[in-house]
């Protein structure tokens, strides 16, 4: 359990970078948290009513929803009404010493306030302006608001997620929002690197639509090559087999057999060596073509095994396999503890730690999410 909240700890790879985070909900806040975990000083500026996700519960702690708490650590906070001239003046003052601005207002909102990229770039030429948007500013869908589930539907993700013969399903976590936040953070880092050479900031945009399309591997690559529209395949991989969930005598397991050697080792362990010699299954392409017959035979062989013990044994042999765990079991797994992937700050905050491991400048956890937000006195 990582409990690193000591203010004397080295502040990380982004120490000295100042970020103003105006964003709400998920993609933008996740970007800001990534930067904050790695040492940036992040100020989260919320509207008078607060970030919408403060109410996205239950569960709640001290009246604030877990959804908000999971995306806003390592930030200080304040409230500011940017719709008025006084609030805009305060923001301009904050930007005087800032390196990065993150926002995900509907396209045109910042411009309407006189705070669009062109205006800000003239006043703050070194500022990196990062926008998380739904669809970008122009084009057939330009300027429209985007939401994770709707973008999953629009970009084809739902069309390949679900059981064969069933209905398309939303991926059970906000994958588009999260990868958009990751790409936004990556874009900010690229812009900071380029600024070190040119001395100039730039506009960085990560849109949910673009990021949703970027997740379509290997389905898009397959379609570009053969023109066949993919369908619902459940847990099975479209190109590899056995790469699927299987029942056992106890818990179900997921086999992720990616090459002929791994398949041979699997067959040896299951005492079904004849399968590895069968021309229908001896090579990866053949296994994919004959997956229905192979699945039936593997189900018979797996029926006598305890899933957890089987998965551990196969992993030791070099065959990727895992029991299908619940969320609580995954978060309490011994390797989760060993990798310090759960972090606590003070008495009230527990969250998922940064997965980005740096040897000299690791992530640090300095501030719990800003649940109490002071209003800025614009007359001060």
TrEMBL record:
Q: Tell me which domain of life the UniProt entry assigns to the organism this sequence originates from.
A: Bacteria
> Which of UniProt's keywords are assigned here?
Transferase
Tell me yes or no: is Transferase among this UniProt entry's keywords.
yes
Q: Which SUPFAM superfamilies match?
A: CoA-transferase family III (CaiB/BaiF)
Any GO MF annotation of the entry: transferase activity
**Region labeled Disordered — which residues?**
360-380
Protein name, per record: CaiB/BaiF CoA transferase family protein
| Natural source organism | Polaromonas jejuensis
């Amino acid at each position: 359990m990582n409990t690193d909240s000591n203010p004397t700890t080295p502040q990380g790879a982004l120490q000295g970078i100042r970020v103003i985070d105006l964003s709400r909900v998920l993609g933008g806040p996740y970007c800001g948290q990534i930067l904050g975990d790695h040492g940036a000083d992040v100020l989260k500026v919320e509207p008078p009513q607060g970030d919408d996700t403060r109410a996205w519960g239950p569960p709640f702690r001290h009246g604030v929803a877990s959804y908000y708490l999971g995306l806003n650590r390592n930030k200080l906070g304040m409230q500011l009404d940017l719709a008025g001239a006084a609030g805009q003046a305060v923001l301009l003052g904050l930007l005087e010493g800032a390196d990065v601005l993150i926002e995900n207002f509907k396209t045109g909102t910042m411009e309407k306030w006189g705070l669009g990229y062109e205006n800000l770039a003239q006043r703050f030429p070194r500022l990196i302006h990062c926008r998380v948007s739904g669809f970008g500013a122009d084009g057939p869908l330009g300027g429209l608001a985007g939401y994770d589930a709707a973008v999953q539907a629009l970009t084809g993700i739902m069309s390949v997620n679900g059981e064969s013969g069933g209905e398309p399903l939303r991926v059970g976590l906000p994958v588009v929002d999260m990868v958009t936040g990751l790409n936004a953070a990556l874009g900010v880092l690229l812009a900071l690197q380029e600024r070190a050479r040119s001395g100039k900031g730039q506009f960085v945009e990560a849109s949910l639509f673009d990021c949703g399309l970027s997740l379509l591997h290997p389905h898009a690559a397959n379609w570009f090559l053969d023109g066949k529209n993919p369908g619902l395949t459940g847990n099975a991989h479209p190109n590899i087999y056995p790469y699927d969930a299987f029942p056992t005598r106890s818990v179900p397991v997921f086999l992720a057999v990616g090459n002929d050697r791994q398949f041979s080792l699997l067959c040896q362990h299951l005492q079904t060596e004849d399968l590895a010699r069968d021309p229908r299954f001896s090579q990866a392409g053949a296994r994919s073509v004959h997956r229905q017959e192979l699945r039936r035979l593997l189900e018979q062989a797996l029926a006598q095994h305890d899933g957890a013990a089987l998965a551990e044994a196969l992993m030791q042999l070099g065959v990727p396999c895992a029991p299908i765990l619940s969320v609580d079991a995954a978060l309490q797994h011994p390797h989760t503890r060993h990798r310090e992937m759960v972090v606590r700050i003070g008495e009230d905050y527990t969250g998922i730690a940064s997965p980005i491991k740096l040897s000299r400048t690791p992530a640090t956890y300095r501030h719990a999410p800003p649940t109490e937000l002071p209003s800025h006195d614009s007359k001060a």
